[in-house]
Fold this protein.
Amino acid sequence: MVLLDGGEFLMGNVGATAYPDDGEGPVRRVRVDRFWIDRAAVSNRDFARFVEQTGHVTEAERFGWSFVFAGLLPDDFPATRGVSRAPWWRQVEGAFWRRPEGPHSNVDGRSDHPAVHVSWNDARAYCDWAGKRLPTEAEWEYAARGGLAEKVFPWGDELEPGGEHRMNVWQGTFPQDNSEADGFYGTCPVDAFPPNGYGLHNMTGNVWEWCADWYTPGQNRSTRGGSYLCHASYCRRYRVAARNSMEPESTTGNTGFRCVRDV
């Protein structure tokens, strides 16, 4: 973990890069206390240790299915139900963190990739076991900014400075073609790509990360950071101020988490 000193920072975003309905703005001055934060998202290796010691059964396992990106399924995969407004998401029986693309898959060779198909409730259970907690949105954004003020990404305002890929997101035409110019199609290792100014890896891209907060008064919990499926054509949420949400029992192949701890 990394110890962050906390303090005041400018949180949020307005303007052309924002989605007004997401509640990114207004930009406001927010103070956070000192806290520890994981250098990277919780990996399959980390999550396996938790499951082995506690016997925890994830919600995806109890439900018997989870949402998998269609492009990760083999061509001969049996027909599955999709999401009406996002047909690239398929309801796959038997998909959970240890079998992220369904029964035919496993995490062999992906122990250092983020644990996915983990609900907010599963993430909270892991935090309780580890003596940690989920970050607030303010803590998450403070950490993601890496000490930079009012920048779009953890490293600045350019998506690919000097032509260098700094995170794992979709390149090409979504959802049909991914050129994999950044080196990855699905998830990547939790410590891939250079860290931000605070030494934190993949604060944007790779997987959405659960936060402690309610997204709005209601039934959804906040997620931050975007994922390997984000693309400017439909979801430019791979930015430090961007917000998203899901119901706390929801599980998908592009959502994980990292933990924080009080000083």
Q: What stands out?
A: The chain has a mean pLDDT of 96.
